[in-house]
Every structure is written in C-alpha cells, then in structure tokens.
Amino acid sequence: MNIVVANRQRTRKINSRLLKEITEALLADLNVEEAELGISLVAEREMTLINETFLRHEGPTDVITFDYELGVPPSGGAALKRRNRLKPELQALHGEIFICVDEAILQANKFKTKWQAEIVRYIVHGVLHLLGHDDRQAAARRRMKCEENRRLTGLSRKFSLAQIGGASKLRA
Q1: Within a domain: residue 172?
Q2: Beta strand pairing call for 34-42 and 63-67
Q3: What pLDDT score was predicted for residue 67?
Q4: Is residue 167, in this structure, part of any structural domain at all?
Q5: What are the pLDDT digits (tens) for 75-86?
Q6: Spacing of C-alpha 129 from chain mean position
Q7: How confident is the model over 20-41, as a mean pLDDT?
Q8: Global pTM?
Q9: For residue 164, is it within any domain?
Q10: How confident is the model at residue 162, as a pLDDT?
Q11: Which of 40, 109, 112, 162 has the largest count of CB atoms under 10 Å?
C-alpha cells in the first residue's frame, strides 16, 4: 500500500501524517488491500486550473478524483463496470485525489462543521469514486452521500479530526 499526501497549499497547516493514517484506516475498513493513491491538498487557484482543464467546468470545486486504473482521468461511471463489487477484498486502487482546502473551509462554514472533517469527507468521496461509486444521478448521489456520512462518522470515532489542522512537517 502506497499512499502519498502532498500539501501544496498555504491556507492552513495540515498534518499530512495523520491524513495518511486516516486514509489507511478507511482503505482497511473498505477491504482494499492494494493501493497506489496520491492525495494532493491544493489552493483555489490550482483547483480551478485542474477543474477547467480536465472537467471543463468553470471555477474551483471541492474534490476531483482521477482513476488511473482505467487509464482515463477523471473517474466516472465506467469505474463501476471495472470493479469487482462482489469481492471487495480483491480490490486495488490506483488513482489521485485533489482536494481544495479553500473550498473545504467555505463548505465547513456553510454547513456549520469543521474544515478538517470536510477534508476527510473529500478523501472518503474520492476513494468511493475509485471503488466505482457514481454521483451523477440523484439516486446514486443519495446512496453515495449516505455511505460518505457513514464512513466519516466511523473515522471521526477513531481519530481526532481536529488534529488534521495541527502542526505538520512537509515531506517530499
């Protein structure tokens, strides 16, 4: 299992080591035994560039997932066909998740939650996409949101999410 957390923004201090531990716990709970996963924490400007370049959507967004297992970024409904959902213990992930810290702060203020929990929510969201979940249709979006909430609740019981904003050493 290879998980790399890269903090490429300066809006907030991030405990990259704790985010990696949280991601490892999430993957273990999802029975993912093999993963090559990059998590990049970016500012609004970089997220806008990624969003406009790859998705052709104007402005920033909260999270974008690239599924490299399929060879075509970003993830979408095709991942669902590729994954063996009947045997989750056989699942391997190969992808990258871009998270906009500025958007996490805005969303946390809007929904009266903590930005650190939003960051973890975006990791869960990205991993669920890599496992084949799709949020394009309303019913699928509701199922995915329910699973997101369930996983976030479980992780918040295991970890102090507030510590994500603690001091961290940036590593290559």
Answers
A1: no
A2: unpaired
A3: 93
A4: no
A5: 444 444 444 443
A6: 9
A7: 96
A8: 0.86
A9: no
A10: 95
A11: 40
Q: What's the farthest any 2 CA atoms get from each other in the chain?
A: 41
Whether 99 is in a domain gets the answer yes
Number of domains in the chain: 1
Dist CA 85 CA 4 (whole Å): 25
Query: CB neighbours (10 Å) of residue 39?
Result: 24
Reduce the DSSP state of residue 76 to 3 states and report it.
coil
Alpha helices, DSSP H only, in the chain?
A: 16-29, 44-50, 78-82, 101-111, 115-130, 138-158
Peptide bond into 60 cis (omega under 30): no
State the residue range of the domain holding 69: 2-159
Query: Per-residue confidence at 167, pLDDT binned at 50, 70, 90?
Result: low
CB 50 within 8 A of CB 91: no
Question: At a CB cut-off of 8 Å and minimum separation 6, what does 54 contact?
Answer: 64, 66, 73, 74
Indicate the average pLDDT of the chain.
88
User: Could you tell me if 90 and 84 are in contact, meaning their C-beta atoms sit under 8 angstroms apart?
Assistant: yes
> How many CB atoms lie under 10 A from the CB of residue 45?
12
Task: Identify the CATH number of the domain in which residue 95 sits.
Answer: 3.40.390.30
Q: What is the pLDDT of residue 70?
A: 59
Taking a C-beta distance cutoff of 8 angstroms, is the pair 42, 99 a contact?
yes
Higher pLDDT, 121 or 91: 121
Q: Residue 91: phi, psi to the nearest 5? A: -75, 140
